[in-house]
Design goal:
The chain has 3 domains: 199 residues, Rossmann fold (3-Layer(aba) Sandwich), CATH 3.40.50; 87 residues, N-(1-d-carboxylethyl)-l-norvaline Dehydrogenase, domain 2; 135 residues, Rossmann fold. Strands 3-2-1-4-5-6 form a 6-stranded parallel sheet, with helices on both faces. A 6-stranded parallel sheet has the order 11-10-9-12-13-14. It has a two-stranded parallel ribbon with strand order 7-8. The protein is elongated and about 75 Å long. By secondary structure, the chain is α/β, with parallel strands linked by helices. α6 links the parallel β5 and β6.
Length: 437
């Protein structure tokens, strides 16, 4: 069975490469000619641990190919995954122009049965629009060709996407025909031989499941951040609270860490889209609006702590930042808390010295020469008036505090992820401030 992935962004490239790794002939398609040429040469457009290895391996084996023409690749292909972008419009709704353009192209050039699977995160009802768009093109050609549509939302964690795809805890598939279900069963069976965890449902429920899952996780993050802020007011410790509630099996211990807010390509976009869907349907999403508001405030929490410490006078202060990406093991800075903090610091007249293990090039692309880019963690803190940690990269967890003590102007630490050993930090002469401690 040959399959196509349209869109070589995070979802399309990871998914296509993983299917190829399981022996499926895959062609990944993108309109960006330079990106496709780079992929043919083994140049990966995103940072994801292990992705370069399986792309190179399967490209050399001939199982993974790349093209810029969907039209030329439709023959002899049974399944087409649409993994193009759905960027937010000004009102927060998902922009479906690329999804529908893929559908139009398929309708214009398909000559036999196809299963069109939406992999992008899309609002409920999108599959129906895809079906309608394809059918309109077939009607123009006066052809009666059978086809199916399906929804197969992705649940990949950036930084661990290969493992997530190869060993998923569940696969959600929305279908409306037995034939489509049989095809999707055949595609996913090799990944789930010992425990077939594909959950089949109607398409609308599958489309909603993706949004609901991300909304629940984002809600847990904002909830814990709000509790953490209250902990500081009443002299409680959010780490102790987390252990106490996380041991309740009804709650569990995942996504209960306080910090400086969530970012990335999924949570912010999907929360906004779900709020907008609710408004369109006359259903006010009160909880999610609060989740979004709490998260936006949380991105400024370290700035407020720093400003309060210096009694509002930050002009001329040199601030070291550790971490720029929105989470570890990725160079993704979309909606990253670091961007909000940097804007606040620059507006206050600070000089910024920043370091991130993999996001430096992305930071330069976004920020240019607004900040100074350090060579390593120690270069970043040289002559700094404060160190602010934003991303919990492993290499930040056990630095040489004695070296840092010698080179910092003011031995002051704001830990935005609560990763440092507080006693060790204070023992080495630092003032320490965390989140909810």
């Amino acid at each position: 069975m040959k399959i196509l992935f349209v869109g070589t962004g995070y979802v399309g490239l990871v998914s296509g490469a993983c299917f190829a790794e399981m022996g499926v002939p895959v062609t990944c398609i993108d309109v960006d000619e330079q990106k496709i040429e780079n992929l043919k040469k083994g140049i990966i457009p995103i940072y994801e641990p292990g992705l370069d290895v399986i792309v190179e391996k399967n490209t050399q084996a001939g199982r993974l190919q790349f093209s810029t023409s969907l039209k030329d690749c439709l023959d002899d292909v049974q399944v087409i995954f649409s993994a193009v972008g759905t960027p937010p419009d000004e009102d927060g709704s998902a922009d479906l122009q690329y999804v529908l353009e893929v559908a139009r192209t398929i309708g214009k050039y398909m000559n036999d049965y196809k299963l069109i699977v939406t992999k992008s995160t899309v609002p409920v009802g999108t599959a129906a629009l895809v079906r309608q768009t394809i059918q309109e093109e077939l009607d123009k050609r006066k052809l009666n060709i059978e086809f199916d549509v399906a929804s197969n939302p992705e649940f990949l964690k950036e930084g661990d996407a290969i493992n997530d795809f190869m060993r998923p805890d569940r696969v959600v598939v929305g279908v409306e025909s037995k034939k489509a279900q049989e095809i999707m069963t055949a595609l996913y069976r090799p990944f789930l031989i010992n425990n077939f965890r594909v959950i089949f449902m109607d398409i609308a429920s599958a489309e909603m499941t993706k949004y609901a899952a991300n909304a629940m996780l984002a809600t847990r993050i904002s909830f814990m951040n709000e509790v953490a802020n209250l902990c500081e007011k009443v002299n409680a410790n959010i780490n102790m609270v987390r252990q106490g509630i996380g041991s309740d099996t009804r709650i569990g211990n995942k996504f209960l860490y306080a910090g400086v807010g969530y970012g990335g390509s999924c949570f912010p976009k999907d929360i906004k889209a779900l709020i907008q869907i609710g408004e369109k349907e006359g259903q006010r999403m009160t909880i999610l609006q609060a989740v979004e508001n709490v998260n936006e405030r949380q991105k400024t929490v370290l700035f407020e702590k720093l400003k309060n410490y210096y009694k509002g006078d930050l002009k001329g202060k040199t601030i070291a930042l550790w971490g720029l990406s929105f989470k570890p093991e990725t160079d993704d800075m979309r909606e990253a808390p670091s961007l909000v903090l940097i804007d606040k610091l620059l507006e206050a007249g600070c000089k910024i010295q920043a370091y991130d293990p993999v996001a430096m090039e992305e930071a330069k692309r976004r920020l240019g020469d607004k900040i100074t880019y350090a060579n390593d963690i120690y270069d970043a803190v040289n002559e700094a008036d404060a160190l602010l940690l934003l991303t919990e990269w492993k290499e930040f967890r056990m630095p040489s505090w004695s070296i840092i003590y010698k080179v910092m102007k003011k031995t002051l630490i704001f830990d935005g992820r609560n990763i440092f050993d507080i006693e060790a930090v204070k023992k080495n002469g630092f003032e320490y401030f965390g989140i909810g401690l």
